[in-house]
Design brief:
The structure is a homopentamer of 265-residue chains. Chain A is mostly helical and 265 residues long. The first copy, chain A, has helices spanning 2-22, 32-49, 52-67, 73-90, 103-113, 118-167, 175-226, 231-239, 244-264. In chain A, helix 4 runs parallel beside helix 7, helix 4 (73-90) runs antiparallel to helix 8 (231-239) and helix 5 runs parallel beside helix 7. Chain A is elongated. The two termini of chain A are 32 Å apart. At the C-D interface, helix 2, helix 3 and helix 6 of C face helix 1 and helix 7 of D.
Chain lengths: 265, 265, 265, 265, 265
């Protein structure tokens, strides 16, 4: 996922830079006051719309969503099944120092190792899952709000530039360059909205959907594991989260991914 | 919350003022008739859309929402738990002259002290909560309506200016300045909608969500308190309203906040 | 409600007239063919969209909604409670010639006096209430449709004017005035939509909400009255329809409003 | 209904023709290539969006919806009550050769005469009703899609014209007429969308609502008739479909309409 | 379905090509950098919005949806009824080497032949059906996202061109051609959105609806077949999926289509 985002941003940037460079000096596209009014105005409107804590939180969520690598569902299932085999053979405490590489799974296992009730484990983990979903949802709302504010401030900047240009139209030779500068804010607003805010808001939605699946697999798997279910039946149950295509893939992957666990066990 | 709103409005205003001042005399951006048509037209359309009482009510709600400091959920829980300890030791009447610094909690406590039935307390407080939610919702609708009316009247003003300019195009040197004035109404409309109406409508929604949480905590807490629940179990129950992050914070805060109550008890 | 609508329309009209007059002769803003195309086109599109009977019905609903004074909930409750006292003392027939000043209440009372079954009264009155709601809803849809059609026909008129101007651009001195005329239809469309159709559609919604409350109070009150409930318990029940603020006001108003009824009784 | 549609289209057409004729020669508004690109593009996009069979079906539905006269609910009820009287006196078979002038009612009666079970009659007729509703709904979607495609192709045509004009701006005297032609496609797109597609889509919705009522009356009425209900109780039951206003009208109409049936009986 | 899509795209393309050719040299409409910025920008934004796997998947879904011929419901029912006759006479194993020409039906039959439980067959096939629906839905979302991104990047390209043109307005004779090139990106964006992305998104929806029907017929039919239902009762049950019109057609078609199966049996 991360890769597509980076590739998309790089592709868009290269294309826009290229089309700017082919038209002559790129210096005419740089105007600090115009940038300030669009970027600053968008940030200002975002601050009015949302509590400060949520705005900062969103920045973190976005950063996290695009840097932390999401664990794939198929190997995740294999790993949980491996843990359940280990727990069956050596007891729950054998999972105490296991390293999962996935925070949520780690927490789920430590809850199970601590011997909490099924109901308690479920309630704590569901709460975390809900929290993640609602954090992502608010982050998406904030990004969408920024995607609406940026073109609006772009238009406001262009209007300010046009009024200034029209009010002092003494020298016709300055009309062109003044209008070019006035249009820059509209361009900045369109770029911010269409390359950054709106696409990231959409991707956060996809990311949220994927993370819900991973978390649900962990939650369901650890509940089964902690009540001592048979590893094969856990495997069956967790399969239901996979799409038909992924299920076919899984068969192979599971063997590859499960083996190290088996050996470890 | 209040701070972010103020910061956002100040940031937007400074940026727009700066970009106006850098372009020359700010006097060309001041046109009283243009302001009258946008501000007056927006107010006029708002009056047609809504009953007068609701329009005035919204102004009050907005003012209140951005001046009264909202009580944080974590210290609020600590305070209610403190009250429940006090009530257990010294009886309900000990809460009679307690000062909560939060109107809704104060009312809830006085209802409990007066010895009303659980059902009655719940019905009265839920009604207040519902009333707050629906008042905020109407306020948001009115602000959103204003955010739609302002650009519309901006466009109407610009059309009027354009028609006047085009109808008497004798002296070409006046075209620029006339058109600058005509565009001002569009600018005013965009500023009113994007810096004031639409962001405030969004923030009212956030504010409403936060106030629902505070009120729900008070309602749930006082119901438990009035039926003599154990302070620790009240603490447990009210925790469920907090997000995981806030819950972690709470542990520390609770001690700090709860102590004065404890001592008072 | 009526007042705010009138005030809003007057305020908007004055501001627009003022801004037109300040710019010179208002004669340039009057163009009968432009008006015909916008007003006529909007009416035409409304006729295509809706059955003739509903279009005429909407005109009546709008006229009625803004002329008939709506009875306030608090005095209405007081009046119904007064009637219930009278009915208790002197029997149902004493209400036969009572004058309520509110058609729906009058009908409700005459049904109760005629001795209809509770179920029948409820069914007849609910049906009337539903009919009012659906009539208002259709009226709103028609007004919203007009609010979308007016700017569209404004744009069509402007396009026709522009094509005519551009096709015969022999004399440059006529370009300005021709374009001014072309823009008039856009202006008319914006005015019709933003000052008349869209705000009235919104107000019809508010009006509908208020009338539902008045009718529900009458319906509930007369049902209680006809089954001989205690006046105080009727008062309690009907209170539930009021918002907390209105409930506080009511206490005073009730005494003032109820007294004449009491004396009459 | 039919009349309002025709009146609306005629009104719009006359106004637009008049405003064209007043501005000079109407020949400048006729441009076959522009028409082809808007009309053809709209048809093309409609074919891509929808299966061919549905596009042709919609044309038929629209044609049918505006030519076949819808039977009014009040006389329809009177007729069904008349049939039930006839069936009671002379038996179901007496309805065998009755002529209803309404296909759906005719089918319903023939099912009842054939002696089908209540459940079967209900299932067959409900299925027809559902089919009508979903056909109308798809027709509406297609018309709305055309209403969105027409302005888009209008804009595409104008862009093509503008690019051609701008690329060969040698003779300034041709700029005006070229731009006039370029704008024609935008005008055509706006006319097709706002006078034909969008209003017809809305009217199809109204038509659907009315036909659902007529069909429901027939369905309910024939079910009662076929199980031998009392004509008066059938009349009572079917009344529930009418609005209060229509119900008042019905009283008179019923007598007028029912009499011939009575005599025939 | 396939045909209408192809016909629509061909019709649109011819009309646009014709209108370009009539206006002079088509070379002015070809500008590689403009194409790169619109097509590349749209692809870039799509990559940011969606995981790479889904973007590639959508391309496959669209390709598949428009090349694989969908089986018509009526002959499909006939075929399933034919299979059920065969299974009754010769036993389930007789269906082992049957060739259906429809993957989903083939899989359903092989599951039935393998003797799986009703519940298992239902669960496996429903899962496939759900997977198809959600794949189509995501495909539609991606196409709609592209339909929104293309005009946005068209506008961005035009803004870049305008800024470049305005900043160096030395030679007035270059203004026209520069602006023509600037407008090209807007034109490309409008073409991509209105001829390709948005209509295909709509058609994918229709396709999804049709495929749900075919799959549901197979699922229901094979479940009945595998529990040994009477072929005539299967025919009755599957009829319920057809619309009234299709049902009438079916009667004839069934005989024609069913006969080969009968003979084979």
């Amino acid at each position: 996922m991360d890769l597509a985002t980076v590739a998309g941003i790089v592709l868009c940037s290269i294309l826009i830079l290229a089309s700017i460079l082919m038209g002559g000096s790129p210096i005419i596209f740089v105007n600090i006051p115009s940038m300030l009014i669009v970027v600053g105005g968008t940030i200002g409107a975002t601050l009015i719309r949302n509590p400060l804590a949520e705005v900062i939180g969103t920045a973190k969520i976005v950063a996290k969503a695009f840097t932390i690598k999401l664990i794939e569902p198929a190997p995740l299932i294999a790993r949980i099944v491996g843990f359940s085999r280990k727990a069956r053979k050596e007891g729950m405490l054998a999972l105490e120092n296991v390293d999962c590489g996935y925070d949520f799974l780690q927490k789920a296992i430590s809850l199970a190792v601590d011997g909490l009730e099924q109901e308690e484990i479920k309630s704590i983990l569901s709460n975390d899952l809900q929290g993640m979903v609602s954090r992502h949802k608010r982050g998406r709302k904030i990004l969408e709000g920024m995607g609406a504010a940026a073109p609006a401030f772009g238009m406001i900047g262009t209007l300010i530039g046009l009024v200034q240009m029209l009010a002092s139209m003494d020298d016709p030779s300055t009309i062109g360059p003044s209008m070019a500068v006035a249009l820059l804010t509209t361009l900045y607003g369109a770029l911010i909205a269409n390359i950054i805010c709106l696409p990231l808001a959409d991707k956060l939605k996809v990311r949220s959907r994927e993370e819900v699946m991973s978390m649900s697999i962990c939650l369901e798997g650890i509940l089964c594991l902690s009540q001592g279910d048979n590893p094969n039946s856990i495997d069956q149950k967790l399969k239901a989260f996979l799409s038909p295509t992924a299920r076919a893939q899984k068969v192979e992957e599971k063997r590859l991914a499960a083996e190290p666990e088996e050996q470890a066990a």
